[in-house]
Structure formats: structure tokens, C-alpha cells
Specification:
The complex is a heterodimer.
Chain A (H helix, E strand, L loop, with lengths): L1 H15 L1 H4 L2 H27 L7 H18 L4 H12 L1 H6 L8 H9 L1 H18 L10 H21 L8 H14 L11 H8 L3 H13 L6 H28 L6
Chain B lengths: L2 H22 L3 H29 L7 H35 L1 H7 L4 H9 L2 H18 L9 H26 L1 H4 L4 H5 L1 H4 L12 H7 L4 H13 L6 H28 L6
Helix pairs in contact in B: 1-5, 2-6, 3-5, 3-6, 3-7, 3-12, 7-12, 7-13
Classes of the chains: A mainly alpha, B mainly alpha.
């Protein structure tokens, strides 16, 4: 376990070294993140300022947006690990991973963490800025935090493993991954927060695993709203079921893998 | 260009695009996954707009229908930029990195024409764009869109200006490969540039308007062009600034291309 953790850190560090070789890529990552944030903040500022109903508070929505977008690279909810797994399977890198003393499920995590380190750091800073704007986590949010964090971590991990596994069945499964991400973005409140959706739709979505994968944590960190205990516990059930299913699916998929050169 | 040269170049363009179309259909499963992904995106965006406008009513005088029209322009912009500007620059970057650029320099065809023709995936672009754009086209109530032939023409003009500026931006994002050896992340930032463009152009802060003429030209191509087409206000400042920015960007493009070739170190030399 310790040896595997050391290997994970070493791999992450090795991948992060590319920023040393191409320092301009750091600027590129920052530019990319700043542009996205600037465009979305402008959009929501305009919505808040010029909407005919006038009940949208720009501060509220911008802090939510910063937090929820900041969480994405931290929990890989844009399915970066799945992409990496699909790539590894497609180009045969998985061959090399299988003979290394590291789990083939963990390996893409190390690679991706290292290669998108700047985005992760940027994500952290966005979460902090978002919390600062909204007021931050409150004492009444704290009891929810361990379970909500567990749900977020487990569900996103399970999604990444499951979608990455499709790489065993299709030569190029990125289209499938993209479709999933589009659906997830709406259902977890990333495009429009669940608190701005009609109550019936928001409630219906709470029965899916998507809000527990990002929305619950976002509103907790904002400190202005709380998820209901019922939906948090339902999220935990989803987390366990999805994780179990994803690991089984991965093992089944791995049996289909035909390595070349082994 | 002489007629003989033109004929030869067009033959090369046809042959390279045919080769691309064949390679695209090799794995039909992947192809259909990509296509379905854009359809899913369209459905999700329609749901997003529906939920948003149910809540906000209208935004700065723009109704849901106006926004749907803006999305039609936006999606057309996205697919055009992705297919005709981004793919060629990714191909250029990869060619410089793997040494293929050497071979391209030796080919008896205009270099830039070859790069653009070789990288465009005609079948994929049409099949991915068409269902997506059609879904939005059918969602718009065209009778309620206030356009005139002149406003549409002016809007298309603004859109073309944005396209030229975007082309310069893409080359700028590719340039580091000639001097530093890589520009993958730089190029990847194009996706951030097109991530959100549905905004009432006239209400944008001055700084964002300036950005739309430089670093985020897709805002000009989508929000700016839709603003002019739908006659939401005085179009003259938008047209003048777009023309000025386009001229400057064309000059920068020429300078950058020359600089890139001067800095290129052949892999075989």
C-alpha cells in the first residue's frame, strides 16, 4: 500500500515535470481557466442584472459557479480519468501499466493529476474565492460534510472507472464520454443550479446520483443552503452501488483486453 | 494563381479530403458516438434554456426565442471554428513535432492550402454539425425573429470578421511549437474561448467587448453577429470595430506565419 502510494506520487511528479519542460503551458492553463471563468461570470452577471424577474442574485450564482467549477478538476467530474483510461487502452499504454507494480485503475489518476496540476490549483483557488464571496461553510453545514465528501469522491470515481472501461469495448469511446458529461453538467446543476430550477425537476433530479456528485458539496461550501439528509443518504447508497458496479465492470472489461507485445 | 496551378491545387484538396473522409468512416462506432454526443449536447442546451427562461423571463430584452437564434449562430460558429481553424492548427502542431512538416515543405502545393485541406474532416463535420444545428433551427420561431436581408448580410460580415480574427488567434496559440517545441495546452484553450458566447452583445462591459475583438472572437461571431442580424441596436460601432480588428489581425497573421517559418528547425537538417 505504502509502496503503491509512493509510486503514485512519483508518477504524478513525473507528469507534472512537463510544466518545467514547457513553462508556457502553465500560462496556457491559466489563460484557459481565466477565459472560461470570465465568460461564465459575465453571462451570469448579465442574467442577474438584466433578467426581467430580477430575483437572481449575481453574488449567489457567481459564488456557486466558482465553487462548482472549481470542484471539477479536483474530483475529475469532467471525466478526465476516463479519457486517460480510454487513451491508455487505445494506444496500448495499458500494456506497460499492467506489468508495473501499480493498479491499472490508479495509474490514470497519477498521470492525470500530474498533467493537470495547474488546473487543480486553479480549481482550489476558485473554490476558495467562491466560498469567500458567499460567506463560506457554516457550522450547520459541518455535520453533512464527511458524508457529502465521501459521496462526491466515490460517485465521480465510479463514473470515471465505468466510462473508462468502455474503452475495452470500443476503439474510441470519447464520444460516449462527451455525451455523459453533457447530461451530467445539467443534472448536477453545473449549467444551471438546482436551486434555480423548477422545484419538481430539481426534486426529480435529486433521486439520481448526479446532485450527490457535485451539487451537494457546492452548496455546502457556499454555506447558504443545505441538502436534505434523505438525499445525502440516498447519495451514499448510489456511491456504494456505483462503485461496486464500476469495479465489476472494469474487471469484466479487462478480460476482454488483448495486449500486444506481452 | 494561374489556372493550371489552381487546377492542381484543387485536385490536391479533393484527394486529401477524400482520404480524410475514408479514414473517418473506418471505425463507424466511434463516428456515431461522436455524432450522438453533439445531439445530446443540443438537447441539454435546449433544456438549459428552457429552465433558465422559465426562471428569468427575458434577459436585456432578449427572449428565449432570440437566445435560440443566437445558439443557432453559436453552434454554426463552433463547428466552423472546430473544423476549419482548430483541426488544421492541431495538424500543424503535430506535424512540426513529429517532423512531417519537413515533407509538407517539400510538396509542390501551397503549404497553407495543404494544411487546411489535409486537416479538415468533411464527413465528420457535416454529420456532427447537421443534426445539432437542425435541432436548434426547428426550435426557433422564425416568424418572431426580427431580421432583414441587409441586417443578415451585415451580421454575416461581422461573423466573417470574427472568423478571421479567430484564425489569427489559433495561429498565435500554435506559434510556441516553432520556438519551444510544444503548444498543446495553448491550443486546447480554444475550447474555453467558445465555452460561453450567448450574451446580449450591447450589454457587455467595454473590456469584454475588447476581448471579443482579440482573445474571444467567438463572442463577436455569436453574440455580435446575432446582435447585428436581429437589429437589437446601433450596428455601426460593432461593424467599424470588427473591420479595424480584422485588418490588424490579418497583419499579425502574416507576421506570425513569417516568424514561424523563420524559426522552424528542420528535423532532417
Amino acid at each position: 500500500m505504502l509502496a503503491e502510494a509512493k509510486l503514485f506520487i512519483a508518477l504524478t511528479y513525473y507528469q507534472a515535470l512537463r510544466y518545467k519542460a514547457f513553462p508556457l503551458e502553465i500560462a496556457a492553463s491559466i489563460f484557459s481557466n481565466v477565459v472560461t471563468v470570465a465568460l461564465f461570470i459575465t453571462f451570469w452577471l448579465l442574467v442577474g442584472k438584466y433578467s426581467s424577474n430580477g430575483d437572481i442574485v449575481p453574488k449567489d450564482i457567481i459564488s456557486f459557479y466558482l465553487i462548482t467549477t472549481g470542484l471539477m478538476p479536483i474530483f475529475y467530474s469532467a471525466m478526465g480519468i476516463a479519457s486517460q483510461s480510454i487513451k491508455n487502452i487505445k494506444d496500448g499504454t495499458l500494456n506497460q501499466v499492467l506489468i508495473k507494480p501499480i493498479s491499472p485503475i490508479i495509474h490514470p489518476w497519477a498521470v492525470r493529476t500530474g498533467s493537470s496540476l495547474v488546473s487543480m490549483i486553479f480549481g482550489f483557488s476558485m473554490v476558495i474565492v467562491g466560498m469567500f464571496i458567499a460567506g463560506g461553510i457554516s457550522s450547520r453545514s459541518l455535520p453533512y460534510l464527511p458524508l457529502v465528501l465521501f459521496n462526491t469522491l466515490m460517485i465521480n470515481t465510479a463514473f470515471n472507472i465505468a466510462i473508462g472501461t468502455f474503452g475495452f469495448y470500443f476503439v474510441q469511446a470519447n464520444g460516449l464520454k462527451d455525451s455523459f458529461v453533457h447530461v451530467a453538467r445539467l443534472c448536477r446543476g453545473e449549467l444551471i443550479p438546482l436551486f434555480l430550477m423548477p422545484v419538481s425537476i430539481a426534486t426529480a433530479l435529486q433521486f439520481t446520483p448526479f446532485p450527490a456528485s457535485q451539487y451537494h458539496l457546492s452548496i455546502l461550501l457556499q454555506g447558504t443552503r443545505l441538502p436534505s439528509w434523505g438525499f445525502v443518504i440516498l447519495g451514499s447508497v448510489w456511491a456504494i452501488v456505483l462503485m461496486y458496479g464500476a469495479l465489476r465492470f472494469w474487471r469484466h472489461g479487462l478480460k476482454k483486453y488483448e495486449a500486444i507485445g506481452l | 494563381m494561374k489556372i493550371k496551378n489552381f487546377k492542381k491545387t484543387s485536385q490536391v484538396v479533393r484527394a486529401t479530403m477524400k482520404e480524410q473522409a475514408q479514414s473517418e468512416t473506418t471505425y463507424l462506432g466511434n463516428f456515431w458516438f461522436d455524432v450522438s454526443s453533439t445531439v445530446v449536447f443540443a438537447i441539454i442546451m435546449l433544456s438549459f434554456l428552457s429552465l433558465l427562461f422559465r426562471r428569468v423571463g427575458s434577459i436585456a430584452g432578449y427572449t428565449k426565442n432570440d437566445y435560440l437564434f443566437m445558439i443557432v449562430v453559436g453552434e454554426f460558429t463552433f463547428f466552423t471554428v472546430a473544423a476549419f481553424l482548430v483541426e488544421p492548427m492541431i495538424f500543424l502542431k503535430d506535424s512540426v513535432r513529429n517532423g512531417y512538416f519537413d515533407l509538407m515543405l517539400l510538396r509542390p502545393v501551397p503549404l497553407k492550402t495543404y494544411i487546411y485541406a489535409r486537416a479538415i474532416r468533411p464527413l465528420h463535420t457535416i454529420m456532427a454539425a447537421l443534426p445539432n444545428i437542425l435541432l436548434f433551427v426547428f426550435a426557433v420561431n422564425w416568424a418572431k425573429i426580427d431580421v432583414t436581408p441587409l441586417s443578415v448580410l451585415l451580421g454575416i460580415f461581422v461573423w466573417i470578421c470574427g472568423l478571421i480574427i479567430f484564425n489569427t488567434l489559433m495561429l498565435a496559440l500554435t506559434m510556441p511549437v516553432f520556438t519551444l517545441g510544444d503548444s498543446s495546452d495553448m491550443q486546447g484553450s480554444w475550447y474555453s474561448v467558445v465555452s460561453m458566447n450567448m450574451m446580449p452583445y450591447e450589454k457587455l462591459p467595454s473590456f469584454m467587448k475588447f476581448l471579443s475583438l482579440t482573445f474571444t472572437p467567438s463572442v463577436l461571431m455569436t453574440a455580435g453577429a446575432a446582435f447585428v442580424m436581429m437589429q437589437k441596436g446601433n450596428s455601426v460601432p460593432v461593424l467599424v470595430s470588427a473591420v479595424f480588428a480584422t485588418i490588424v489581425s490579418l497583419l499579425i497573421y502574416r507576421l506570425m506565419w513569417r516568424h514561424a517559418l523563420n524559426n522552424y528547425t528542420s528535423a532532417s537538417s
